Amino acid sequence: MISPRFGVMVSVLLAVALIPTIIHGFVGARTDDGRVTSAIGTTLAGLASKPTERRARWVKEVYGSDDWIERRYQGPDGRDIRLFAARSYDLKRLYHHPELGVVRGTDLKRAVTVPLADLDGAPVHVLTAQRGTGVAVYGLLYDDQFVANPITLQLRTSYELLFSAKKPMTLFLVYDRQLPPATPLDGSLAGKMLSEAVRSFLYQAVKVSSVSQPK
What is the rounded distance in angstroms from the CA atom of residue 99 to the CA atom of residue 82? Predict the structure, then answer.
């Protein structure tokens, strides 16, 4: 039995503990900035594109995303560069080795984080082929900021989500299987495509932000 002296304090603590349960469990509150990946330009870095045959069910299972695109941008020299972009409220599905889904079966080295000059020095993550050619580069956008360290972000948002609605993360991944690993990212087609994809996504005409309740 709880002493009356602590009754008020216990009630307050229980009420505070219920806040995230109500926000995420019953209400299912999520912020919606009005942006969609389909607004990303179908022509980037001067290359036209066509969609791949990726299935929506697979993307949902792997990345927890209902808003995504995957396109192949082709140049006159036969260059074939793939762009995958997806948004999800399950942050870990996007930041935890996103290349394992999109470029599955490709032997890539561990990612390194570098600033991309074309994106005003924003941090992006680069993986290069263990042998031969091939470079994958991806950026993670959360709350209009690029994420250099996803683990730090996850720790910070874990606290924020105790009292606020979920926000989506956006993954932009470009894979150029013909790019030599030693090629500087800045000035490369992969770097240009990533920066142009991000800019066309950010600068699209959007609706006023709102809070959705998917449940």
Answer: 12
The CA-atom distances, in angstroms, between 191 and each of 14, 18, 137, 172, 214 are 50, 45, 8, 11, 35
- CA separation for the pair 180, 47 (Å, rounded): 19
Domain locations along the chain: 1-30, 34-206
189 closest CA partner among 178, 201, 200, 198: 178
Which residue is listed with tokens 């910070």?
156
pLDDT per position in the chain (215 positions), as tens? 445 554 544 443 333 443 444 444 444 567 888 899 999 999 999 999 999 999 999 999 999 999 999 999 987 778 889 999 999 999 999 999 999 999 988 889 989 999 999 999 999 999 999 999 999 999 999 999 999 999 898 888 876 767 668 899 999 999 999 999 999 999 999 999 999 999 999 999 665 444 444 33
Of 64, 68, 9, 12, nearest to 38 (Cα)? Answer: 68
SS3 at position 117: helix
Q: Which stretches within 138-188 are classed as H helix?
A: 150-160
Residue in the structure block whose two tokens are 């080795």: 97
Tokens of 52: 């791949």
